[in-house]
Amino acid sequence: MTAFIKAARAIGDLDDDFYRDERQRDVWNEASAVGFQMVQWIALLAAAVLPWAAGRVGAWIALGIILAWMAVSIATTSYARSQDVDVYTSAKKWRPRAILAAALYSAGVVGIYARLSTPLDQTPETWFGMIVGGICGVAVVFALATWRRRRDARRVAEEEARDAEGM
What we know:
167 residues; mainly alpha; 81% helix; DUF2029 domain-containing protein; transmembrane
């Protein structure tokens, strides 16, 4: 058992007698999922609103919220992956809730940048640099999306080949 798994089990108190009863465990897992999703949505909403509503101070708070949100999300998916569960297997397309989450995240990031960056009356060279940086960022996103799509297709093909061998 890795140090990450040991820490996750300790934080989640997963060795408690409570988890021995299957029904209690299932209900608690569902309740935890609902609570986790609520915290995710509240964090995204707060991070999207704070920079615009509370100015520079709100932007710093929103930055902290987004960083905490990312840390929890990464820890959650990392734990699932360490237990051989790929949480992205069912996320093959953009559903309305994923689009809303991306919009809230984007609004937060744009608000944080707008409040914490230098004034927007910059020279043309600065604007050119931001445009080039944006284009490069979009290119990286598309490259990563293509790589992930190919990786998922390869994984599915390998699973199908293993299933075919087993028959």
